[in-house]
Amino acid sequence: MSRAPRYQVIYDDLVSQIRSGTLAPAARLPSETDLARQYGVSRMTVRQALDLLDSDRFVVRRQGSGTFVSGHGERGRRLNRLRSFADEIAGTGGAPSSRLIHCAATPMPSDVAEALGGMDDDTANRLTRVRLIDGSPAALQDAWIPYSVAPSLCREPLLDDSLYRTLTERFGVELRYADQSMTATLLTAERADPLGTEPGTPALEVRRTTYGSRGEIVEFTTSWTLPGFPFLLRIDAE
Q: What is the pTM of this model?
């Protein structure tokens, strides 16, 4: 069973305080030294957590003044690295939730079998959900997970409604990287209906193949995201 690194634990705790209002916008965070003492870790570990908070725009660092809680940013999905839907929208001012459409062991169609390196009619866990932000449908996600990776995936609820956390903590999967492609598309009636919109509505189609620590494929997901919930990406200069 995998355990989250200490900087991630600190990050999660501070995010929880920010979201609950315990740490209000413009509030100053304790110093690195005080946070290190509070969490019983080194300053380097605290700095890793603060770097992550800064990357996700939960905080603003002001040289000589300290670290402050930022205001809410643009609504959307932050695409800085491989992470869950909830983490993608972290810091953008939205509250994530999901509506489950389908979860069962299902024979794979040919395109999914090819993506997962299997054969037609092999069985995989199929998890289809509508992802919501502030109660509004934002994206339709159709995920396929090899049965051997997570045999009981659809027999128990996801941990915190997160596929990635469930794979990591329940099944011991170590996520390493993902290959992802994005293209514009128009929604079919089948995909528009669960999103509460009309067929022909523009959407961003994203295909993601996720790999584990041994280079094995652990997930193949196609999602369709509505224009009102763009992907947000920070690009650093070299």
A: 0.66
